[in-house]
Amino acid sequence: MTAGTDLDQNLRKRKLKTKKRRRRLISLAAIGLLCFCLMKWMPWDKAPVLGQHGEQSVNQLIARNVSKPKPEGKIVYLTFDDGPSEWTEEFLDVLQQYGVKATFFMQGSNLQRKDLQSVVKRAADEGHYIGGHSMTHEYNKLYEERQFVSEMKDNLALIHEITGKQPNLVRPPYGSAPGLDDKMMRDQIAQEGIKIWDWTIESNDWQLKDHPDQIVENIKQATKIDLEVVLMHEKPQTLQVLREIIEFYEEEGYQFGVYDDNQHFHLNFQKDHRL
Fold first, then answer.
1. DSSP element (H, E) containing 230
2. Given 36, 128, 194, 254, which residue has the most CB atoms within 10 angstroms?
């Protein structure tokens, strides 16, 4: 009986040690997974120093770099590049007539024109979003010479000066691919809190000066999903068919969205969820 009892006690002790070992392994695995997630989310090449000097907390940095889910339902975002221009006011008049808000990506060299700044302020006051589109729109300067972030910061600061708004969204001239293939550049963009939008539909309006009807056909043929972001430009041929484009989306049951910094969702060709 004594030998049997000792054997039972030894077995119980071994089982207890095994359970404790499993618990330790599970705890270590959970800690490792948490560390991996934090390292994946955080821009570690510019790690924050947390303390009493106004630096952002880890939670704030993580929240800044995580996109929200895309909105549900049939939504189309009408976007216009390269403004402000001599046609901006007419674009705003048409949008106002239909009660539609749009997202404008405006270029710094045009924003510097004093004669166009009042219409930029009007666009912001009427609820349209004004995002950045660089200062120069020059591929070599932005991507080869790596001036993308500095130009966008100057561009966004100029929008703030004119409108009083503080936008974070920009559209890379020529799209984020291949210009932003370099991860180090994207790391820098993420660290600055700049967000990027490309598009789902390219209207090709910029090269259809004498064929405005083709702009409408391009958009109709490319409209396939519930959430569309249409790339257009402040061109007279686009203005000519803007009413038809709006009416097409109304007939298709789409709601018109306008970008909101607080509801950002990622939409970039690089598929970088930080941007």
1. strand 227-233
2. 128
